Amino acid sequence: MKAIQINRTGGPEVLEVVEIGVPKPGEEDVVVKVETAGVNYVDVYHRDGRYAVKPPFILGQEGAGTVIAVGTGVTELKVGDRVAWTGIMGSYAEYVKLPASRAVPVPEKIGWHEAAAAMLQGMTAHYLSHDTYPLKKGDTALVHAAAGGVGLLLVQMAHQLGARVIGTVSTEEKAELARSAGADEIILYTQTDFEAEVHRLAPDGRVQVVYDSVGLSTFSKGLNLLSPRGMMVLFGSSSGNIPPFELGTLSQKGSLFVTRPSLAHYIATRGELLSRSRDVFDMILSGKLRLRIGHTYKLTDAAQAHKDLEGRKTTGKILLLP
Ligand SMILES: NC(=O)c1ccc[n+]([C@@H]2O[C@H](COP(=O)([O-])OP(=O)(O)OC[C@H]3O[C@@H](n4cnc5c(N)ncnc54)[C@H](OP(=O)(O)O)[C@@H]3O)[C@@H](O)[C@H]2O)c1
């Protein structure tokens, strides 16, 4: 089978197309023919070494496909079942092996593209808006990178939960997408100072929560925008990691909360994985959540997908088609 392997960390050029054997299932595993693999920013961190994984390894955390083999201990799944997954390294490939306990059954009416797109970014938007800081009517939320993969889904969920949403994006085209997802206000943070703009736009000049996946270029200004006891949800670092900071700052700026959450801890049990994915699938089926598949690439063009993602050229979900 074809797979995208990295033998050393670095830029997109380190992605190599390799031919390797189709994996065999262990006792508790299934092997899946990958129909669609998701590209996520975490793949960039794995590739460039920001998240340490020792090469060589096959990149990719997410996908959807058909079960072609099951281990002897697997009772819940059978050959032919449609499944999706996240958090499984090795998904940029024609076949992937995963523990049966991490495979999510895909409803019949959900297509392959939607199934893959719902997993990592869909469940992330879900836990951020429903659990990390459960949004409610009357809240104002600042969502950075509002036209990105997570961003467009988070804006929709925040809007549906009754929050007022201020989004930041880099271009007019992205602004339009974020507005159509339900953002009340959009700031072009590459052209205007978002701190001054949020003070102008938010009721009382402050927000109850900042959802920040950009990191280095946005984090410290975001702290200045929170109302007392507000929450900074730092969930990524697309622009770079933030430097260490003095915890006393949180007290001075209004007894703030800061959290650095990870999806893995919000789908740690099989029960939570299934209920969260079911919620996201239900939102898609009922028309409440619109997925934007912004870009599809051949599996072998994964390096180009990385260049576009890091170059801020993409919107919504990016998929690889093996
Ligand atoms: N903690 C978790 O559980 C979790 C789960 C999923 C994703 N994440 C994080 O959420 C973020 C979004 O992931 P995604 O896959 O949906 O990606 P994405 O948002 O589609 O792409 C990243 C976006 O970040 C913005 N950005 C701002 N400064 C940037 C810079 N210097 N370089 C590159 N991009 C920059 C760009 O939007 P503009 O051009 O509009 O600025 C870009 O399109 C990532 O940081 C990811 O690690 C975290």
Characterization of the model:
This protein is an alpha/beta fold and 322 residues long. The chain has 2 domains: 2-120 and 264-321, Alpha-Beta Complex (Quinone Oxidoreductase, Chain A, domain 1); 137-260, NAD(P)-binding Rossmann-like Domain (Rossmann fold). Helix content is 29%, strand content 27%. It has helices at 41-48, 112-132, 149-160, 172-180, 194-201, 219-223, 248-252, 270-285, 302-310; strands at 2-6, 15-19, 29-39, 57-58, 62-70, 82-86, 95-99, 104-105, 140-143, 164-169, 185-188, 207-212, 226-234, 257-259, 293-298, 317-321. Strands 3, 5, 6, 7, 8, 15 and 16 form a 7-stranded mixed β-sheet that branches. Strands 11-10-9-12-13-14 form a 6-stranded parallel β-sheet, sandwiched between helices. A 3-stranded antiparallel β-sheet has the order 2-1-4, with no helix packed on it. Helix 6 links the parallel strand 12 and strand 13. Helix 2 (112-132) packs across helix 3 (149-160) and helix 2 crosses helix 8. It is globular, with a radius of gyration of 20 Å. It starts with a strand and ends with a strand. The structure holds NADP nicotinamide-adenine-dinucleotide phosphate. NADP nicotinamide-adenine-dinucleotide phosphate binds at residues 40-42, 120-121, 124, 145, 147-151, 169-170, 174, 213-214, 217, 235-239, 261-263, 309-310, 312, 314.
